[in-house]
Amino acid sequence: MDQGKKASIALLAVIAGLTAIAGCRWLYGLPLGVDSTVYRAGALAVLRGQPLYDPLLALDPESALELPFTYPPSAALLFLPLALFPAQLVWLLFAVGTVLALWSVLRRFSGTRPVLLLVLLAVLEPVWRSIGLGQVNALLMALVVWDVLPSRDRRYGGVLIGLAAAVKLTPLIFIPHLFLTGRRADGFRALAAFSGASAIGALVLPGDSARYWTSAVVDNRNAGSVGWVGNQSLHGMLARFGVTSMAWYAALAALCLLLGALLVREFHRRGDPRAALLVTAGCALLVSPISWTHHWIWVVALAGYLAGRRAAPAGAAAVFTGLATASVPGGGHRELSWSPIQMVLGNAYVLAALAAGAVLTVRLLIRPGGRDRTSRDRLSAKH
């Protein structure tokens, strides 16, 4: 049996399993998918003329815990089709979409048996938690990857990044990535796509748009959770160390972005666009005020990139299984009383990303030179 048939069978088996879960939960009226429920509730709020940024009346308190809608109004419009389906089916759509998106990303980052690698990566916390929550992050990651690492021509390059940013603002960081790598036309298209989607949101939902862009976008309703162990960002790590000054956070974020830009330019110059993309994704996760552990879904692309490189994938898997962060007390500000060892374990995602950035910076400094032909040729062979 060839690899294509094996891949199809494996994907169909996964989809069948997810469908069975959703069907059973629907038959018994059990909640499923916390985040996908929020997306659906946002769509219902639009259809019912209810405010997006007040408590969502369509939420099931048993499953969603009164979570707010934190996305721009354009996202609510894109989520409108979800209102047609029960919550369990909406979860199924996002769960299946996540699996297919991860498979697609692995195909661009690893040329060796992406389905087998995807099955092995199911042990990673960002993967199983994203599927369990019904998260949209894997789909947004796939849009960015398809745009930055196209398999065909770039006639409409940048549009997918703009649409991803219209759902969640974090992908905006990939617009500077396009400019840094010399794709100015794609960068302007991304800006146009994002601006166009935002303008449509303002026309259809003027009140919600005004509230989002003037207050909700900076309303730190997660302030009490910034220092929670689940927030694996620079801001979260500083809060766990008891550093509340925004100046420290701003300085570290600026330094991270500066070094990240230099690494992106250098990897692009050496002909390794995948590494450049991973650097930008890592910077986005580090500098974002809130980066929940499931936001680190980019570890799947990293594992694909590292596949076949001795112990590197195993090391990444050891960090991102979530065992380290689960081994320390969290919540109720208990993070402030961590021991030094607990500080290392509880900040595992952040420290791993910072360590990787430091290693890359040192290696590029001590090995200046030409293009990375091995990486370039590998990429060319696959695309």
UniProtKB/TrEMBL annotation:
<feature type="transmembrane region" description="Helical">
    <location>
        <begin position="246"/>
        <end position="264"/>
    </location>
</feature>
<feature type="transmembrane region" description="Helical">
    <location>
        <begin position="7"/>
        <end position="28"/>
    </location>
</feature>
<dbReference type="Pfam" id="PF09594">
    <property type="entry name" value="GT87"/>
</dbReference>
<keyword id="KW-1003">Cell membrane</keyword>
<feature type="transmembrane region" description="Helical">
    <location>
        <begin position="348"/>
        <end position="366"/>
    </location>
</feature>
<dbReference type="GO" id="GO:0005886">
    <property type="term" value="C:plasma membrane"/>
</dbReference>
<keyword id="KW-0472">Membrane</keyword>
<dbReference type="InterPro" id="IPR018584">
    <property type="entry name" value="GT87"/>
</dbReference>
<keyword id="KW-1133">Transmembrane helix</keyword>
<dbReference type="GO" id="GO:0016758">
    <property type="term" value="F:hexosyltransferase activity"/>
</dbReference>
<feature type="transmembrane region" description="Helical">
    <location>
        <begin position="276"/>
        <end position="297"/>
    </location>
</feature>
<feature type="transmembrane region" description="Helical">
    <location>
        <begin position="187"/>
        <end position="205"/>
    </location>
</feature>
<keyword id="KW-0812">Transmembrane</keyword>
<keyword id="KW-0808">Transferase</keyword>
<keyword id="KW-0328">Glycosyltransferase</keyword>
<comment type="similarity">
    <text>Belongs to the glycosyltransferase 87 family.</text>
</comment>
<feature type="transmembrane region" description="Helical">
    <location>
        <begin position="156"/>
        <end position="175"/>
    </location>
</feature>
<protein>
    <submittedName>
        <fullName>Alpha-1,2-mannosyltransferase</fullName>
    </submittedName>
</protein>
<feature type="transmembrane region" description="Helical">
    <location>
        <begin position="75"/>
        <end position="103"/>
    </location>
</feature>
